[in-house]
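Encode chain A's predicted structure.
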Amino acid sequence: MFAKILIANRGEIACRVIRTARAMGIATAAVYSDADRNALHATLADEAVRIGSAPAARSYLSIDAVIAAARAVGADAVHPGYGFLSENPGFAAALADAGITFIGPGARAMEIMADKIAAKRFAAEAGVSTVPGHHGVVESADEAARIAGEIGYPVMIKAAAGGGGKGMRVAASAAEAREGFSAAASEARSSFGDARVFVEKLVAEPRHIEIQVLADGHGNIVHLGERECSIQRRNQKVIEEAPSPAVDGRLRRAMGAQAIALARAVGYVSAGTVEFIADAAGRFYFLEMNTRLQVEHTVTEMITGLDLVEQMIRIAAGERLAISQKDVRFNGWAIEARVYAEDPARNFLPSTGRLVRYRPPAEGSAGGLTIRNDTGVEEGSTITVHYDPLIAKLCCHGPSRGMAAEHLLRALDCFTICGVEHNVAFLAALLGHPRWREARLTTHFIDEEFGGGFAGAAATPETLKVLIALAAVTDHLSRRRAKLNGARALPEPRRGERVVAARGEAHVVSVVPSQAGLTVTVAGEPVQIATEWRPGDLTIVAVVDGEPLSAQFRPRPGAMLITHRGASLDARVMSRREADLAARMPQKTPPDMSRYLVCPMPGTVISLAVEEGQPVKSGEALCIVEAMKMENILRAERDGRVARILASPGDSLAVDAIIMEFE
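Encoded structure for chain A:
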C-alpha cells in the first residue's frame, strides 16, 4: 500500500480524498494556488505545496508543477480527483515516467474515452447502443448547420474533448446550429484546449442515467448500479439520486452489462462511469464514459456501503476487488443536492465573495436517516472567479425516495450561507416540486419548470400562514430580549397585537404566551409555536402545531426575510400606527436601466458582437462574458441602437458594471 498520496486537486474532492486516505493510514499532501493559500484542503492535508498563481492553467492544470510537488513531498501516488488533470492521459504518462502511480485508469482508456467522437465509435464496435448522429469532426458553422439539417432538429453540438457541461449547445434551427457551433468550439478551446465539436440527435424526453463501474488489474469488473442525473442546468447536474426511479431490475442488468462490456473492451482499470441517455420508451444510448471519480459518487456510496475512493486506491496499489457482482447490494435511497454560489434570481449566474457565515446542517445518522455534507470550504473561505462555484454537496439517505427527499428538505432549511448568493432555496423548491416528487424527470426539467430563473417558490396558504406567524414570533422575541437587556423599546401592544406587512398586504396578528410556547393568531386561526430562537440566530428551529420545522432568517433594515422550503416572506412587523403611517409613505421609483447592458456576474469580456452606432434587434447577441470557465452570451432585450461601448475584450468586470449604452 502507498505511504503518501498527493491530491492533484482542490475544494471538496481534495478534502474527500484526504479523509479516506487518512482513514487508511496513508499520509496526504495537498497542492494549492495563490488563490487557495488558506483553503480548507490545504490545511486539512498533512502537508501542502504551492504550485502557482490563481489561474488554473498556471497551477492545477500544470503537469510539471504537480509532478514537481509530488517529488518534493516524496509521494508515491497521485489522486487527481475530478476535473483539472483527472482525465489527461499525458498527466498519467508523465507520472509513470516519474515513477509515481496514477490513481486512475490507464492512458489508453483515457485517450479513447476522452475523445467523444472516438469513444462513440469504439462503443458501437463493442456492441454498446449509441445515439444517432454524425460522429466526425465538424469543421465550420455552415457544415454544422448542414449536418444538423440532415440528422433532423433538434440536435446537440458537443465538444469532442468535453465534459462537465462545457462546450455543449442545443440547436433547433440552422441559425442556432451556426451560433451553437461557434459558442461550443470557443468554450471547448478555452476549457480543454481542443476546439473540435461533433453533432448528434437530441433524444426526446431524455433522462440522464449513469452506471458506476469498478475494475481491477486482474480482469475483475463489477457495476454498482445506476444514478439518476436528469436534473441539470446548462448541462451541469444539480440533483442526483441512486437508484433511479425509472430503472427496474431488468433495465439495470441491461445497462450494467453494456457498461461492463465497454469497460472490458477498453481495458479499463479503476472507478469509472458509463453515462447513458434514456428515452420515454426505455431505450438507452451510450453518451460518454467518464474515466474518473464522478462528483455524484456519494449517492452510490450511500446505497452500497462502499468507499469508492478507497476502492480506487486499492486498485491502483494492485489489489484485487474484494467483491463480485453477486456481492453488490443496494440499500435504501440517496439524494445529492449541489449547493452552488450562484444567483437564481439572475438566471443562476455565478456569485463570488467571502463566506461571512457558513453553517451546514450537522452530519450523522439517526432513525434510519443520514446526512452527509462533502465540502471544501469553511466560514471565511472565498469563492473566486477562477474555479467552479460549487460550495458543497449535501446528501441524504433514507429507506425510501420520499423519506430521503423529506430529510434533505429539512437539511436544506438548516443550511446557513451568507456573503455570496446561493441556490439553497432553489434546491428546496426543486425537491418540493410535484413533478419531481412524481419522478417525471427529463434533462429539460429545469428549463421547463424554471425557465425564467427562480425568484422563490410559490407558498401555499398554509405555508404563508406559518411564515407570517414566524415573523410575528421573531419580532416578539426580539422585543422581549431588548426589554430584558434594558434597551429602550416601544410599548407592548395590547393583546400582543401586531401588523405583518408582506406581499403587498397587511396581516393583523396577535402573539400571546401559552403552555406550548407562543400562540399566534393569523386571520383568526391559531398557530402554536415553540422555539428557542434568539436575535442573531440565522436559523429558526421550531415546533409548529406539533411538527418540527426549520427556516432561514435574515434581518433587513426595518424588516426580515424568512425562507422555508424555497418559499420566502419579506416582512415588516409593526404596530397599527406604524403600519398606517408606512402606507402613506411615497414609493421610491427605481432608476431606469433599460438603456444599459450591465454585466450580470463577475467575469471577463471575451468578445463584442456589435459596434457603436449599430442597430440591434431584441434577442441579438451583444457580447460574451466568461465566468468560472463558462461563456455567457448577453443579448439585447429590445430593439435599439448602440450609443456607447464602455468595455473591451479582456476587461474584468464586476456585477452590474455597464458594458454598453443604447439610444
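The chain has six domains: 4-103, 132-201, 207-331, 332-457, 465-583, 596-662.
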